[in-house]
Amino acid sequence: MHDMNESNPPTIGNWQPTAFVQHGVSLDTSMGTVRILTDAGDAYIKPMGNRQGPHPLACEWVGTHLAKWLGLTTFEFAIMEIDATVDEIPFFRGGIAASGPAFVTRAAKGNSWSGAAKDLDALVNPGDVGKLVVFDTWVRNADRYPPDLTSRRPNFDNVFLETVVDRRVGKSRLIAMDHSHCFTSGGELDERIAHINRIKDSRLYGLFPGFKPKIRQEDVEAGIDRLSELDHKFVLDVVATIPDAWEVRPEAASALVEFVCRRAEYVGNTILELVSRECWPDQLFDNRH
Q1: Is residue 247 included in any domain, yes or no?
Q2: Are the beta carbons of 2 and 241 closer than 8 angstroms?
Q3: How many CA atoms, within 13 angstroms, populate the side-chain half-sphere of residue 139?
Q4: What dihedral angle (degrees, nearest 10) is formed by the CA atoms of 90, 94, 107, 84?
Q5: Could you give the angle at the alpha carbon of 163 between the alpha carbons of 13 and 167, nearest 5°?
């Protein structure tokens, strides 16, 4: 695990805010999300002291790494240290952010998806629709479109369409965002995550009705091919960067690595048939055109 006091915070890419500058807007979310200004520009922060606790921060960190590895577009993200004695970041429901490492993403222009399939017509990355379903199923992310609608409602806010700023007026980019409920549905990370019932959960995650007309076999297969390339050491290295302050015990970290690797193999072997039944029941494995 990563000791934030011994070295610089782990990061990915070139965007790395190091200082809180100003509070913007506090949002009514379980993770206590707040829009802030940092020394690297506008950002959204999920700090310690939130109602869900520190483990969903670890899930967010690992989940977003895995989404990027799979080939999905994510927001730029990093970990930033907060000092509550000087950085006053109020939560929507009262209280302030606690000191410690926080998960931050770079703010982007765009809007949440309406749920309508037609709003996906202008995507510059249409292949990410199918890969997002592969990803959500892999990490058991019920916080977009859950496999059981009796337990929770679809969350359209977690499908973000970023405005593409170039000559292609009206185009948008699908962003894989908000992964705090991956692996545990917002609960604690412990050894139970590697239980066989979780690894071999045969349900589909993330398959919105509005996604179905947009999913192509070739994109699902691309996600499957990528899963087959997953390296145990890569997963181990990512999990090792979870800050110690997020209180993930070594036994839980090992179980998380086991889950990610073993479930990648299981999903790779089963998901095409599951998606085919839902998206192309009359022409199994033939939706390339």
Answers
A1: yes
A2: yes
A3: 32
A4: 30
A5: 100
The boundaries of the domain holding residue 210 are 110-279
Where b means 16+ CB within 10 Å and e means fewer, 100-120 reads: bbbbbbbbbeeeebeeeeeeb
The pair of three-digit structure tokens given for residue 149, joined into one six-digit string? 């609608």
Residue 99 near residue 84 (C-beta atoms within 8 A)? yes
Write down the pTM of the prediction: 0.92
Q: Reduced to 3 states, what is the DSSP secondary structure of residue 123?
A: strand
- Which CATH number fits the domain that encloses residue 264? 1.10.1070
- One domain, residues 137 and 237: yes
Query: Residue 249: inside a domain, yes or no?
Result: yes
* 3-state secondary structure (DSSP) of residue 45: strand
Runs of H (alpha helix) within 140-216:
196-199
pLDDT for 166: 74
Q: Which of 47, 77, 106 is the last residue of a domain?
A: 106
Residue 44 is assigned to a structural domain of this protein: yes
The number of domains in the chain is: 2
How far apart are alpha carbons 55 and 77 in whole angstroms? 17
Residue 213 pLDDT greater than 90, yes or no: yes
Nearest to 70 by CA among 80, 58, 62, 59: 62
Are 199 and 145 members of one domain?
yes
Q: Regarding beta strands 20-26 and 34-38, do their DSSP bridges make them parallel or antiparallel, or are they unpaired?
A: antiparallel
- Return mean pLDDT, the chain: 93
Q: What is the pLDDT of residue 139?
A: 98
Q: What percent of the chain has pLDDT over 70?
A: 92
**Which of the 8 DSSP states describes residue 288?**
-
Residues in contact with 58: Cβ distance below 8 Å, sequence separation at least 6, in sequence order: 189, 242, 246, 248
